[in-house]
Design a protein that fits this description.
Blueprint (H helix, E strand, L loop, with lengths): L10 H54 L6 H11 L5 E5 L5 E3 L14 H5 L4 E7 L2 E8 L6 E7 L1 H51 L14 H57 L6 H31 L8 E4 H11 L6 E2 L9 E4 L1 H18 L4 E7 L3 E7 L7 H4 L22 H11 L3 E5 L7 E7 L19 E3 L1
Parallel strand pairs: 7-9
Antiparallel strand pairs: 1-2, 1-5, 3-4, 4-5, 6-8, 9-10, 9-13, 10-12, 11-12
Helix pairs in contact: 1-4, 4-5, 5-6, 6-10, 7-8, 8-10
Length: 485
């Protein structure tokens, strides 16, 4: 059995995608929340440490009371005295400055600190200077320049980047692991569904004894129980229908068989009565003709019923022999006196031959041509064509055709387009028997009725050079010929 392509519209990919999506959303939520909580905590700790260190250093600077010339030495002493790595920038009122780093100057001071420092307060901001993150603490001791302490956050930023990458990798791993878990879970979850699908397919092809295991107490056990009860009911119903159908077939076959003997006597007596009808009065003559016609019609119906019974039972005998289809069609038309109403064209050189049952093939042709003459209008045209593998016999009449609502049912048993039509001789079995005979030959019989073109019946037979084997070997074909009648 071929597998369907992997598609998100199927249940297994949807389950895997659902597991992965839930894991992705959960991992992303946890990672983002954890990262920002940790980031804020680390930065707040760094700011707190910088504030404490900065206030202590500014207090030391205020206690030193250096002169203007001693500010540079004080800046260096403050840097050396601090317990953390930082740089100091001292900015005087005239804009001159002293610094402990060649990369920091008076212009590196964040503008946000100007207000608090000028007001005599200690200010703190987090800022980026020349692409590097810092916590900057600023203050102006009385009578001294403004001092700005730059505490770098590069190590903190690197640690946060590592944390971010670790959380991202953990999220990706969680998504992949969830997809694997989803695939494994879907495999176990869908196994009962696959078993149910397989069992349903087995029922579809006629294996009515198929059952599902009823293991456990979950929903799949309930499904198996319901499926098995359905299969049992279906098997019982089909068994009853088969028994009923077999009973009907036996009944029809038995009734037809029992009717043959009295009908033979009846038709013989009717023929004798018809031969002596001249000595009867008008009423007796009409009654004799009616008896003859209806007795023959009843005999034909019984023969058709027996033939249908044999076809249904698969007991219809086939007498295979080489047949010239063109000659058989011409014989079927000529022996029934239809020559003046059926268009017979000149045949091409060569023969359109196959191995078939001539009696059944003659019955098919006679039924098609007879129906065309009775229900259509002459002239009736018969066309025989052949390809390398097939022989096609087309029978077309010049009548009004078959209405579309009747076209699909013309091969149904006992079906008549107009059950009340007067003088109808058929029983509605002829076309059904003709199609079954065509299928016994390995072919088929179809009908079409385009508007204004009458009814067209097409008989298609495989072209054989030998009797087919019981196993139904492919037909051996011969060279193609086309012939027209």
């Amino acid at each position: 059995m071929s597998r369907r392509p992997f598609s998100v519209s199927r249940l297994r990919p949807r389950l895997v995608a659902t597991f992965a999506l839930v894991a992705a959303v959960t991992s992303a939520g946890v990672a983002v929340t954890s990262y920002y909580i940790t980031r804020e905590a680390v930065l707040r700790r760094a700011e707190s440490n910088a504030r404490t260190e900065g206030q202590a250093l500014l207090a030391d600077a205020a206690a030193a009371l250096p002169t203007r010339a001693q500010v540079a030495d004080l800046v260096q002493r403050l840097k050396a005295r601090g317990g953390a790595e930082f740089d100091v920038v001292a900015v005087a009122g005239d804009g001159t400055f002293e610094t402990t780093s060649i990369s920091l100057s008076g212009g590196a001071v964040p503008p946000a600190l100007a207000g608090p420092v000028d007001a005599g307060r200690v200010g703190l901001v987090r800022a980026s200077v020349a692409g590097e993150p810092y916590v900057v603490v600023g203050g102006r001791p009385a009578g001294l320049p403004a001092f700005y302490l730059f505490f770098p956050l590069r190590d903190v930023a690197d640690d946060l980047n590592v944390l971010r990458n670790v959380l991202a990798a953990a999220g990706v791993a969680a998504v992949l692991l969830s997809a694997v878990v989803g695939a494994l879970a879907a495999r176990g979850l869908l196994r009962p569904l696959r078993e149910t699908r397989t069992a349903a397919h087995r029922l579809e092809v006629g294996l009515l004894g198929t059952r599902l295991p009823e293991v456990g107490r979950d929903e799949f056990a309930d499904l198996g129980h319901a499926f098995n009860r359905m299969a049992e009911a279906l098997e019982a119903s089909i068994g009853d229908l088969r028994n009923l159908e077999a009973s009907h077939r036996r009944f029809v076959a038995d009734v037809s068989h029992e009717l043959r003997t009295p009908l033979t006597a009846l038709t013989t007596a009717a023929d004798v009565l018809e031969a002596h009808a001249a000595g009867l009065d008008d009423a007796g003559s009409r009654a004799a003709r009616l008896l003859v016609r209806e007795s023959h019609r009843l005999a034909t119906l019984v023969e058709d019923l027996m033939e249908i019974s044999r076809l249904d039972a698969g007991a219809a005998p086939m007498s295979w022999e080489p047949v010239d289809v063109v000659a058989l069609v011409a014989s079927a038309v000529g022996t029934r006196g239809w020559g003046g109403q059926v268009h017979l064209g000149a045949a091409a050189a060569g023969g359109v031959t196959t191995v078939a049952d001539p009696r059944r093939l003659d019955a098919i042709v006679a039924n098609l041509v007879g129906n065309a003459l009775e229900h259509g209008s002459p002239p009736v045209r018969v066309l025989v064509t052949a390809t390398e593998g097939d022989i096609v016999v087309v029978v077309n009449d010049a009548g009004p055709g078959i209405a579309p609502d009747h076209l699909e049912r013309v091969f149904d048993r006992f079906y008549k387009a107009d059950p009340a039509r007067p003088g109808g001789r058929g029983s509605g079995l002829g076309l059904a028997i003709a199609r079954e005979n065509a299928r016994l030959h390995g072919g088929d019989l179809t009908v079409a009725s385009p508007p204004g073109s009458g009814a067209t019946f097409t008989l298609r037979l495989p072209r054989r050079v030998a009797e087919p084997l019981p196993a139904g070997d492919a037909a051996v074909t011969t060279a193609s010929h086309d012939r027209v009648l």
